[in-house]
């Protein structure tokens, strides 16, 4: 059974940084693309970043230059380093093992105060 567990969220002030972690189990982690998504209150879930099995990373325009996705296959973990956080980055952040089906974690709350 595939399980993804996010951690690292919290309350920070604008301009500060956080690092989110996504720990996976029950899956051939190293061969899968992992993505980070977020959902703010009253909004649809939106894609933030993803990293391929080979380590190639892709970002949504609104986080380019501020967020960095990385993976440690030995630890079955993907990270999202978030810098220069803005109040509009406030959301629940989810990681997902992308595919058919896609597996999701339970999410971690990130709140950025102004």
Care to describe what's here?
There is one protein chain. The chain has 114 residues and is an all-beta fold. It contains no helices and 11 strands. The strands form 2 sheets. Strands 2, 4, 5, 6, 9, 10 and 11 form a 7-stranded mixed sheet that branches. It is globular. The N and C termini lie far apart (40 Å).
List the helices and strands and how they pair.
Blueprint lengths: L2 E5 L2 E4 L4 E8 L8 E6 L6 E6 L5 E3 L7 E6 L4 E6 L8 E7 L5 E2 L3 E6 L1
Parallel strand pairs: 2-11
Antiparallel strand pairs: 1-3, 3-8, 4-5, 4-9, 5-6, 7-8, 9-10, 9-11
How would you summarize this macromolecular structure in one to three sentences?
The protein is mainly β. It contains no helices and eleven strands. The chain is globular.
Supply database-style keywords:
114 residues; mainly beta; seven-stranded mixed beta sheet; four-stranded antiparallel beta sheet; 11 strands; 0% helix
What is the rounded distance between the termini?
40 Å
Strand residue percentage: over 45%
- Overall average residue pLDDT: 95
| Assembly of the depicted chains | single chain
Secondary-structure content class = mainly beta
Order of helices and strands: EEEEEEEEEEE
Radius of gyration: 13 Å
Unreliable segments of 5+ consecutive residues: none
Number of helices in the DSSP assignment: 0
Overall 3D form: globular
Query: Could you give the count of β-strands?
Result: 11
| Helical content (DSSP H or I, runs of 4+) | under 10%
Tell me about the biggest sheet? 7 strands, mixed
């Amino acid at each position: 059974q595939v399980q993804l567990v996010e951690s690292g969220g919290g309350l920070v002030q604008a301009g500060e940084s956080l690092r989110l972690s996504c720990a996976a189990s029950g899956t051939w982690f190293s061969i899968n693309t992992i993505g980070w998504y977020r959902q703010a209150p009253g909004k649809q879930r939106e894609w933030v970043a993803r990293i391929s099995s080979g380590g190639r990373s892709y970002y949504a325009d609104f986080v380019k230059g501020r967020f960095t996705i990385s993976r440690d296959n030995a630890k079955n973990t993907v990270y999202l380093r978030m810098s220069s956080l803005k109040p509009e980055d406030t959301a629940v952040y989810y990681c997902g093992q992308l595919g058919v089906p896609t597996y999701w974690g339970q999410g971690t709350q990130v709140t950025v105060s102004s």
